[in-house]
Automatic annotation (TrEMBL):
<keyword id="KW-0812">Transmembrane</keyword>
<dbReference type="Pfam" id="PF02653">
    <property type="entry name" value="BPD_transp_2"/>
</dbReference>
<feature type="transmembrane region" description="Helical">
    <location>
        <begin position="20"/>
        <end position="41"/>
    </location>
</feature>
<feature type="transmembrane region" description="Helical">
    <location>
        <begin position="295"/>
        <end position="314"/>
    </location>
</feature>
<keyword id="KW-1003">Cell membrane</keyword>
<keyword id="KW-1133">Transmembrane helix</keyword>
<keyword id="KW-0997">Cell inner membrane</keyword>
<keyword id="KW-0813">Transport</keyword>
<dbReference type="InterPro" id="IPR001851">
    <property type="entry name" value="ABC_transp_permease"/>
</dbReference>
<feature type="transmembrane region" description="Helical">
    <location>
        <begin position="164"/>
        <end position="185"/>
    </location>
</feature>
<protein>
    <submittedName>
        <fullName>ABC transporter permease</fullName>
    </submittedName>
</protein>
<feature type="transmembrane region" description="Helical">
    <location>
        <begin position="256"/>
        <end position="283"/>
    </location>
</feature>
<feature type="transmembrane region" description="Helical">
    <location>
        <begin position="126"/>
        <end position="143"/>
    </location>
</feature>
<feature type="transmembrane region" description="Helical">
    <location>
        <begin position="97"/>
        <end position="120"/>
    </location>
</feature>
<feature type="transmembrane region" description="Helical">
    <location>
        <begin position="216"/>
        <end position="235"/>
    </location>
</feature>
<keyword id="KW-0472">Membrane</keyword>
<feature type="transmembrane region" description="Helical">
    <location>
        <begin position="48"/>
        <end position="67"/>
    </location>
</feature>
Length: 319
C-alpha cells in the first residue's frame, strides 16, 4: 500500500505537464459545456478534430526544433507556399498523391533553407525563420499572382470530407505523423541526439555527435510537416489560399509551450505537444461557439502565450 502511495506522487511529478494540461482540458470543457449546449455534441467534436489536425501536424515538427534548442517561425508561411505549389501542379495536370508529394518537397526545401541559414551561416533561429516567414509568404503570392486556386481532386476531397471510424480523415493523418515522430524521438539514435544537442551543444560535439547534421535534419522535418499540413488546409475548402494561416503564426508555438516544451531546449515530448494543441483548439472552439469577437480571441491567445512563457521560465528557475 505504501509503495502504491509513493508511486502516484512520483508519476504526477514525472508527468506534471501532461497532468496539468489534462486537468485544464477537463475544467475548460466543463465551463464550455455549461455556457453553450453545442459544445458537447458529436458534430462539434468532429469540428475540433478538423481544427486541430493541420496545426497539430506542424506542432509535431516544431517539437523537434524546440527540443533541439532552436525555433521555427516560418511554418505557417511555408505551409501556404507548399499549398500554392501543389495547386500549380494541379493546374498542370497533377492529381492524387503527387499533389501531396509536391507539397512535401517544397516543405523539405523550405526546411533545408532554414537549416542552412541557422546551421551553416550561423544566423540566430529567431531572425532566420522570421525572415523566411516573410519570404515564403511573399513567394506564395508571387507564384500565383495573388490568386486563389480551386482544387477538385479525389484525394483532397477524401481528406477533407471523409471519415475513418467516425473521425475525420485528416485527424488520422495527424495521429500517424505523431506516432512516427514520437517513435523517432524516443527510440532512434537521431532522437537521442536531438535531446543531447538541446541539452548542450558543446558536450554533444565533444561526444562525437554531428551537431550540424542533426540540426539540419531537424529543420527539414519541421518544413516537411508544414508541407503535409498544407494539403489538410486545402482539403478543408478544396481551395489553395496564399494567405492561409495568416494571423495564426504564433498559435503553434503557443500550443507547444503549453505542452511543456522548454524554450531553452533539451526537454519535451510530442505527446505533451499534442495535448497543448488540443487544449488551445478547445479554447478557440469554445470562444467561437460563444461568438466572442475575433479581436478578443486574439487578446486571449496573447495572454495565454505570455502565461505559457512565464510558466516555462518558472520551470527553468526551479530546475
Amino acid at each position: 500500500m505504501k509503495n502504491k502511495q509513493s508511486i502516484i506522487p512520483q508519476f504526477l511529478k514525472k508527468n506534471a505537464s501532461f497532468t496539468s494540461i489534462f486537468v485544464a482540458l477537463i475544467l475548460i470543457s466543463i465551463v464550455w459545456s455549461v455556457l453553450t449546449p453545442y459544445y458537447l455534441t458529436l458534430s462539434n467534436f468532429k469540428n475540433i478534430c478538423v481544427y486541430v489536425s493541420a496545426n497539430g501536424i506542424m506542432a509535431a515538427g516544431l517539437t523537434i526544433t524546440l527540443v533541439l534548442g532552436g525555433l521555427d517561425l516560418s511554418q505557417i508561411s511555408l505551409m501556404a507556399l507548399s499549398g500554392m505549389a501543389a495547386a500549380i501542379g494541379y493546374e498542370h495536370g497533377l492529381r492524387g498523391i503527387t499533389l501531396l508529394l509536391v507539397a512535401m518537397l517544397v516543405g523539405i526545401v523550405g526546411g533545408m533553407i532554414n537549416g542552412c541559414l541557422i546551421t551553416y551561416m550561423g544566423i540566430n533561429p529567431f531572425i532566420a525563420t522570421l525572415a523566411t516567414q516573410l519570404a515564403f509568404r511573399g513567394m506564395a503570392f508571387i507564384v500565383t499572382d495573388g490568386r486563389y486556386i480551386s482544387i477538385n481532386d479525389t484525394m483532397v476531397r477524401f481528406i477533407g470530407f471523409n471519415s475513418i471510424f467516425g473521425l475525420p480523415s485528416m485527424f488520422w493523418i495527424m495521429i500517424l505523423v505523431y506516432l512516427i515522430i514520437g517513435f523517432v524521438m524516443k527510440y532512434t539514435q537521431y532522437g537521442r541526439n536531438i535531446y543531447s544537442v538541446g541539452g548542450s551543444r558543446i558536450a554533444s560535439r565533444l561526444s562525437g555527435i554531428p551537431v550540424k547534421k542533426v540540426e539540419l535534419v531537424s529543420y527539414i522535418i519541421s518544413g516537411l510537416t508544414a508541407g503535409i499540413a498544407s494539403i489538410l488546409y486545402i482539403a478543408q475548402g478544396s481551395v489553395a489560399l496564399n494567405n492561409a494561416g495568416t494571423g495564426s503564426e504564433m498559435d503553434i508555438m503557443t500550443a507547444a509551450i503549453l505542452g511543456g516544451l522548454s524554450l531553452s531546449g533539451g526537454k519535451g515530448t510530442v505527446l505533451n505537444t499534442f495535448m497543448g494543441v488540443v487544449l488551445l483548439s478547445v479554447i478557440a472552439n469554445g470562444m467561437s461557439l460563444l461568438s466572442i469577437s475575433s479581436y478578443y480571441q486574439m487578446l486571449i491567445k496573447g495572454i495565454i502565450l505570455i502565461v505559457a512563457v512565464f510558466v516555462d521560465h518558472l520551470r527553468e528557475e526551479k530546475n
